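Give me the fold.
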Amino acid sequence: MDSDSNEKKTKTGIGFRYAWNGIRWTFVHERNFRIHTIATFIALLAGVLFRIEAAEWAAVLLSIGFVIVTEMINTVVELMMDHLSPEQSKTVGLIKDISAGAVFVAAITAICVGLIVFVPKMLTVL
C-alpha cells in the first residue's frame, strides 16, 4: 500500500514539473504569452483595488484562463505544424491562422469582460 501511495505522489510531482516546464517554456519563448501574463497581473491588481465581487472574480478568472489556455494551445499547434511540415504549405498556414484566431477571440472576450467589470468601477472613482 505504501509503495503505491509513494508512486502516485512521484507521478503527481512529475506531472506538475512537466506542466510547470511547459508554462515556463511558453513564457520564455512566446512574446504574446508574456503580454497576456502582464495583462493578467493588471487585471488581478485591478480586481483587488476595485474590490470586485465573487461573480466578477469568477468572470475575470475564467477569462484569464481562457486566454492563457488558448495561447498555449496555439503555441502547441504552431510547434506541431512546424515539426510535421517544415516546408511552406497553404494548409499549415491556414491551420496556424485558425489557431491564432482562437486566441484572438479569447482575448476580445476577455477585454469585453474586463470592460463590463471594470469600467463602471472606474466611473465611480472619477
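The chain has a mean pLDDT of 93.
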